[in-house]
Amino acid sequence: MRCVWLRRLSFVVLSTLIAPAVAQTPLGSGFTYQGRLDQAGMPAAGAFPMAFSLWDPPTAGNQIGPTILLEGVQVADGLFTARLDFGAGAFGAEARWLEIIVSGQTLSPRQEMTAAPASMYAAAPWITIGTDLSFAGGRVGIGTTQPSTALEDHQGLTP
To answer: Comparing 61 with 20, which gets the higher pLDDT?
Structure first.
């Protein structure tokens, strides 16, 4: 009986020590993409090699980040899920499109990436827009790109 009680106590103590570390794990830049794949007009089934790349325009243009190659993506009733990570700097205020290649065939059109993956940008440090706003090491500057105090205003206005 004492051995069972000691095991339970050990489990509770260990869980208490590990839980805060797990809860504080930072959110990465990856996201889950869900899609539908048809083959000859019917929902596809099986494992397919897929390649995913991120682009700045809907056609042609510049690729953003790496091409992600996934072998054997499972497709059931035409539905599949892929975990993608183009890096922390892939999403910002600009529009992005996802190009998908399945079994060597490029699917068209590219898929516009909307709010959910792009919302990662909201947690990123602010970007300077002209000289209107900046974020640097916990300091906020208005009208300056290098604030020296917690809040610094360089609008040139006099009271």
So the answer is: 61
